[in-house]
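Sample pair:
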Amino acid sequence: MKRTIALMGLGLALLAPTARAQDMVRDLDLTSPAMVSAEMTRQEVEAILTNASAGAPADLTGKRLSGLDLSGLDLTKAILRTARLNKTKLAGARLDGAILDQAWLLDADLTRASLKGANLFASQMARARLDGADLTGARIAADLSGASLVGASIADAHLGADMRNQSMGLMRAVLRSANLAQLNARNADLSRVDLEFASLKGADLTGASLKNAQLGGADLTGTTIIDADFDGADLTSAKLIAPIGLDRAKNFDKAKNLERLIRR
């Protein structure tokens, strides 16, 4: 009965808008078997991958894979929609073009993983480790609160809200308090993204869209902002120390709360 209730709550959270889903996570039993156990072994996952093909990619939809060591596996274009991968080790794994929509990756290790062109819509990735990971061109509308993406790449990735399709509410990436030092975010769409209290030290935001982004308390020390668009971005108590290319940033004068920006 307890497991049934937990799974019902899980399904509701996955269907909720990002903000509401975050609230509902706090009410879920994240220690339940549905969230921390694995129903397959690494060898069984490898067998599914071996039998996959370009026309029939590996389908691991809804599978419980939490805690497994899947490091280094080739999961290219694998379907992992609603899968549970909490605390799963995926270091060095290849997930290019993979579908991870509504998947759970709390505290997952994706260090140096390749997720080029992957889909991460409504995924729960709080505290995930993606240091050195490559998310070039990915679609990321995930909760990455407290995650680490040191030296990672989200170049040309789409993390912003698509205002033409918001039937589920405001769906965009949440990177609150994330460590984004040395992040490559060239030409990334970060519009309306929650970056409050995130560390962006030394990040490359060349050509990125920060329109209406939430940057309150964020640390932009040494960040490259050439051609970055700040139209409507909230810079309340953000640190902008020794930025590169401030004179070439777009619409910086249209950012919100500039008088509360910390500069030196």
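The CA atoms of residues 31 and 170 lie 28 Å apart.
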